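Fig. S4 source data, part A: sequence.
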Amino acid sequence: MSTPAANRMRRMRERRRAQQIAPILYERADWKLFLDPQTLPQKAGCEPNQIGRVVLKELVDNALDCGASEVTLAGDSRRCTVSDNGPGLARERMLRVFAVNRELVSSKLVRLPTRGMLGNGLRVVMGAVAAFGGTISVTTRGHTYELAPDSVTGATKEISSAPAKDAAGLTVVITFPRALFTDADFSAARVAIGAAASGTTYTGRSLPGWYSPEALRNLLAAAPPRMKLATVIADAFGIIGTEPEKTLEWAAQFIAQHPAACSNIGEIGEEPIGGHYRKVTGQTVIDGATIPFCIEAWVTAKAVDEATYTATHPLLNRSLCLARLYGHADSTGLRLYGCGLDIKVKGPKRAAYYIDLSVITPYLRLTGDGKAPYLGHFKSAIESAIKGAAGEAYRNLVRPAAPISVADAARLPRRGRWCMLRAVKSCGAPV
């Protein structure tokens, strides 16, 4: 039975609870995170000191994916200029794609082995301009436009425009008041330019078999609202006269009628990077879709006495990722881990390995806005390529001469067993 004192305490607690004010819920638009130097790395998916690298990567990747046959890059620690000879942009389209407040409007939902995958790159570029007090100009279709982001609305404003030499393509010039770019940032972007011109490139259309029914339905749902879905199918797959429905049943039937049959998704080739080389091609299943791939590995090795560690930025569709793969080798073999991988290769043992890895594919999972790839679906192919290239590098090591007896020396063949490795400079970005 409650006492009078207990009842008074209960009533007092109830009054206090009734008087409590609900906490205020604060809101801010997602695009504002692009304008703040503290939160921009979150949206860019990078470390704070990597913003310059992301800006160069996104500008170069967009230029290469727009259909340009030539892309140039120049600049210094405070300034960069990226030019291409592609189709350029109309003024209205330019203002839209360079705005941080836009939705993820992109052609990237159409699965192709291109560099960009999120349609987020130019938002990061404009966010960096705003966050670090930079300036940006875009020259295209006969005019040079000085642009600036509006911190209130998130739109991009045209500050001024002037006639320019009417040349094909688009040129972006960005200047910051302080150093934001490093030599390594420029080197990483130039790797993408060099890789774009190397080997063979897939020039066909996306294939229905590269999608699951759910992914295909999402593609149709993301099309402009007033566009006929038959036009979307014709644009994405080159299939004319199809009247699609936004249902899983129709998507599954359409995929079954048009299975994936692509055996050549493109490759970089052995020569551009050099070293001991292996290539593995094939298909894997990701989220119910049949995805083709080309895995390439280039490995060089140097003899050492102790276990060594290495790190490399993998190439994803010919562009260096910010994410790293790590590795170490000892007397039990070579281990490689990161990006969803944990591979132990027993053949190649203790040595200093220099590894470059390329993955070309129309689709893979990403682990964040920085486009860090999840490579677990390609594990067996990557393991096979690394094992072949690293194993050959290990077998051809130049080992230090060891003292031998006269009798052993007499039994050696006239030509040495080990050959001198060719000096090869890896084009991977510094880690």
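Fig. S4 source data, part B ends here. The chain has a mean pLDDT of 85.
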